[in-house]
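ENTRY TYPE: protein
WANTED: fold as tokens:
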Amino acid sequence: MFSTKTFRSLYPELFMDRRSFLTTWTHNRVARPETETVSLLRPLSGLEPFVPSTTQPWDAVRVGHLLRRITFLPRWGDIDALMKMTPSEAVDKLLDTPNDPPPPAMADHATESLEGLTPDLENQIRGQWIGDAGALRNWYIGVMRDAGITAAEKMAAFWSGHFTSEFEVDLEYVIGPLLYRQNKLFRDTGLGDFKGLTFNITLDAAMLVYLGGDLNRAGAPNENYGRELMELFTMGIGHYTEGDVKEAARILTGWRVSQFTDQFIPPTGLFTSYFDAKNHDINAKQFMGVSFPARDGTTNTEHIVRQEEIAKLIDTIFQKRPREVARFICRKLYTFFVYSNPAKSDAAVIEAMADIFVQNNFNIKPVMAALLKSAHFYDNANIGAQIKTPMEFEVGLARQLGATGSLYGEMRAMGQDIFDPPNVSGWPGYHDWITTTTYPVRAAAARRVIAAMSDTAVLDFIKQFPQYDDVNELVKSLGALLLPRPLSAGRKGVFVKKLVGGAPDYEWGGIVDNSPSTAARNMKDLLQTIAELPDFQLC
């Protein structure tokens, strides 16, 4: 194992400001990545619509860029389909297409609680919870892998890193059926009303268990969720007081979760939240300068408290701090979908996104549409400027190369344990995704997947491309699929030589037809070469 210093010297492009490293392009011209060096400042463009041109065409590279950022890496069929649309039509297709996968078998797995059980029975039930979590993870990987031309899964991933919940926390568990329902909430509403999503996540069963909201009661308020609601979920530090945290905790008292068959099950059913009136603080509260009147037995009901306290709490945040909420969320959208270096976020673009967010009553889709259709998004400085997350890397291998096997285990070894972020802040990301420990795991995963491809699978992979029998066209398409930026002439030459094995270029079609095993072997050799390139780690 080499040292961190040695590792960084071998792969500088993964650790420096990748906008500066993008030696490929200036803002207005395409150059060769491995030979030209230009120091780029921030992108010159804003949220004005992207207009294709001869120097910035709507081609496989830019379509691939869109798909890398808003899906879990492109398949060639996706690139081909969207190239036939305008940029605006392509974005609308992605944002307007829902995804509604069938639930996993474990979604309704019910157990009793651990209360009063023998150690053997406790271990048996814990074993089911752990097994259910594993089944949920494998199901989710399959959903991401099989998703069509839709932004739904990438948006669900974004929200799972924003409104975090952990399966295992303090030696206890947020059980799989609750996490599945939260994941479905993100998938179904992730492009809708953010204020509505914030309301729903506040009473979400998994969130209540994760942050102790199900233990929050009158006389002993739990401040966890009230604090994170403001600090991490809506507006950030500096825009609320400790008094606001304490009052929010009191407002949020009295909500419980039905998790187990030996405990109370409300009319809404198992795995849902419900209101327990006797544990709700009925005294008057004052949150961010807004009065919440005291209530009596006739007004301390689930429906009334839901509307007059929970909804009012959320409304107050958005009414009192609209710009702060808008900037906070738009900055997170920007770092997730455009460029993850928080020190290099484009303040002007984020401010323009925030304007759209507020103007559209905190609806996410108009903001995402403006961003993904913008000249800024397609600016050369933003293409290939992100490190693939472990989810993107592993699910991308499955979508592009048919990877099977221990995808979750490899993803976890790369530093991203789905449904189990390190803490309530989520995954730090950025340079944390590439370390001397995780980079070898990535390299080994790619080698494993490529080595496991049968000749038939490789030939199918080759023949999906248009003009696959023209080696130069094949290499161009292959580069657009697997790498984020255009191939230089030098790389094209190397890739072509790998495929034809010393034969003239024009013989490639004959090799595919008459010596398919040779074509498959050469393609696998080229795929291994591509997977070893530093920019294979970028998207």
